[in-house]
Amino acid sequence: MTVIATAGHVDHGKSTLVEALTGTDPDRWAEEKERGLTIDLGFALAVLPSGAELSLIDVPGHIRFLRNMLAGVGAVQGCIFVVSAIEGWKPQSEEHLRILDLLGIETGVVALTMADLVDDELVELAQLDIEEHVEGTFLEGAAVIPVSSITGRGIPELRAALDQLATTLGPAPDRGRPRLWVDRSFAPAGAGTVVTGTLVDGVVAIGDELEVSSTGRKARVRSLQRHHAKVDRTDPGTRLAVNLTGIAHHALGRGDVLIASNQWHHSAIIDAELRTLPTLAHEVSRRGAYSVYVGSGEFPVKLRILGDAQLTAGAAGLFGSISANEFCPYRATASSFASRGEMRQLAVAALSTSTRKPRQPKLNQRMTSTQLSSNEAGSTQVGSSASPANRRSQPSDRGSFPMQPSTPAANAFGPSWSRPGISVSISPNSASKTAPP
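RE: above sequence
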């Protein structure tokens, strides 16, 4: 199974297109149906002409729900990029493209929706406009297919293009380290705790014991479903519903990750490379409030730039630490949820400037990560936050940032997206003391 997401501006017909492809309305909430506006993530399964299965995550296009969009695209392999033939390229079209490009998404298909409502000349102009906007991104050269979700125009061609997309992407990598990024947690009557998410690595089977990375609490897998079909085990690259025993549904939620025990080191500080987008409207320095987006979660962090005191728009540099001290709810594993081959074995993280007040602290939360190393310039290690000794070395709100100077690896993979324009990638060549990559 291949997991991809929709992307594009609000009201450009993403949800309607998903329904035309799958027969499933991805809008789950009554408010979404009443307003005709996607608010949260939606999910559907498409069976392609070759018989291959495609799991679709429908994301909101409105700027107010950008955090929900980020939670949905953190673990996908490709995308259907949707642009309306009536309105053409819009602000969230550009924003969503930069998100996916910086996340390391490598391929996708462009659907030019509402093609039945304009003449052929306008369709052709819209195609040329899209090709101009995607130049230099992962969508350069991608098929731009005019479609109508109402009349069915172009739907067979789009399904054929998605079939080719699934073939190009191939199976998701399996390094034997299961990670399920949670996007929903609930308790259906008589079932107990159920979580849903995207399995990006490893195999999960009934009877497995999994650990919640943020708290260390363990739970056992009672049953599994893949798009409403019961299964005994599942491979990576799958949308999954997991029925858990031994844990309450309110003990975990969006942004948590279920992992196998004894495969990860826990830390609150990472060294990484920083690249800012040219559209960033301000300089980046250690001053300010930032958030990091990893997997399906958003977490407040601090940063310290090495070398220059600040970075301007479009610049790149190294910063000594992204730190989430013991009072911050950083709960992410640092193994890549957007892995692309052997060189991409650590998480893609995205920083975002914010003026909002940081969330209230939760003392029992921690971040997990692998040990970081660079073959090009020695090694940089991420310490554990589990022991009191290491907690003393973590930064406080008024303290300095402990760090070790390092040089970025020569082949560091593509960074993630940032809003309004800051991104970070973590150097490759990671290693674990307890399990080889």
